[in-house]
Design brief:
Blueprint lengths: L20 E4 L5 H13 L2 E6 L1 H5 L4 H14 L9 E5 L12 E3 L4 E4 L2 H4 L3 H32 L2 E6 L12 H21 L4 E7 L2 H5 L3 E4 L16 H12 L6 E2 L2 E2 L15 E3 L5 H18 L8 E3 L2 H20 L1 H5 L19
Length: 357
């Protein structure tokens, strides 16, 4: 879990000569609102990329929270309303100043084992939903933003993923797969856009940062993967435990989407697909997001930003442990790896097959 907000330094922005324009996908999410609050206070411009339902659904707590932020802060604080716009996610042309920084973040986490997600046509469709949101959605947004950045001769794309881009998590396989996929895409993209002075940074906070502040969709649990039959640390149980600790409060559901908590006690009893937006108190949101917001403000627009930035002591420790394991396995099986080298032979000539084969 991230440190309390009080232990995180105040936002620190890299030097710049003019206010920047940020395009925030998932602009109505807790991460989008918290980051925008810091950017607007600093004097930057913010374009909120949102879906219409995220900001207009009268029964959605997320829409109510964003409306409250907009009416009580953006429209009231001096200069904010002139520097804040709400646009469709893929629109980058309707702002008087070109977008210089873009921060896509994941907006959906599908929870379920491989077998659970393959149990029915409905659960199979969840796999496509995951990749449409957290892989193809990001690619489409980046493609739309690249031409104006290239024309301007500078820009910075900051992809917010998680340590799920480094290691797998039981019961969160499709989400982790989409994170690995988009990170591989961005690693390649970074080389392609570097000559245009466009930077690419992947920011990796703890896994709960993106998952617990966006929509969670859970597939029905198969009995073979219930805790009494399978000792693997499934994310379904981890998420329920985290939300119980965060004291999330349930709200009425609309069209199968609940603004409430993922209860660890009831997750295994569900017989249908359930989608939820965890409702967190402002204090809990601030505690979860403080480290990540600090990292985004410190890196955004930096003259020489990192290709990857891991947020927080816990996340750094987990990634170090994974890299240590990889390094140890390389050493343990190094002899097997080196045995296939063509030592002293011309690699361009065909090898003779051993006799008798």
């Amino acid at each position: 879990m991230s440190k309390p907000a009080s232990t995180v330094p105040p936002p620190h922005f890299p030097p710049h000569h003019e206010s920047r324009v940020w395009l925030l996908s998932s602009g109505a999410s807790p991460i989008g609102v918290a980051l925008a609050r810091q950017l607007l206070t600093h004097g930057d411009h913010v374009v909120f990329g949102t879906k219409a339902k995220e900001v207009s659904d009268p029964n959605s707590q997320r829409a109510a929270d964003f409306s409250s932020f907009w009416t009580e802060e953006v429209l009231v604080k001096e200069g904010w309303k002139d520097r804040a716009k709400v646009r469709a996610v893929f629109s980058t042309k309707h702002h008087r100043r070109p977008v210089g920084l873009m921060s896509p973040s994941a907006g959906l986490a599908i929870i379920g084992t491989v077998e659970e997600l393959g149990a029915s046509p409905r659960t199979c469709a969840l796999i496509r939903d995951q990749f449409e949101t957290t892989y193809f959605g990001h690619i489409n947004l980046i493609k739309a933003a690249l031409p104006p950045m290239r024309h301007r001769g500078r820009g910075h794309i900051i992809l917010l993923t998680g340590i799920s881009g480094h290691l797998g998590t039981p019961g969160l396989g499709m989400y982790c797969a989409s994170q690995w996929a988009i990170e591989g895409f961005c690693d390649s993209l970074a080389y392609e856009i570097a000559p245009f002075n466009i930077r690419m940074t992947i920011v990796q906070p703890n896994i709960e940062i993106n998952v617990l502040t966006n929509q969670i969709t859970t597939a029905p649990q198969l009995p073979q993967y219930a805790p009494e039959n399978n000792a693997a640390p499934f994310f379904r149980d981890i998420a329920g435990s985290l939300l119980n600790r965060l004291e999330a409060v349930a709200s009425p559901s609309v069209d199968g989407v609940v603004d409430g908590r993922l209860s660890s006690s009831s997750a295994g009893e569900r017989k249908s697909v359930v989608s939820e937006y965890p409702q967190l108190s402002e204090q809990m949101k601030n505690g979860l997001l403080a480290e990540t917001i600090h990292a985004l403000t410190a890196i955004g627009g930096h003259e020489n930003p990192p290709a990857r930035h891991i947020v927080g002591h816990e996340a750094v420790g987990v990634v170090k442990e994974k890299l240590k394991m990889v390094s140890e396995e390389l050493e343990d099986f190094g002899e097997v790896s080196y045995a296939v080298d063509l030592d002293g032979e011309d690699a361009s000539s065909p090898q003779r097959m051993p006799e008798g084969i």
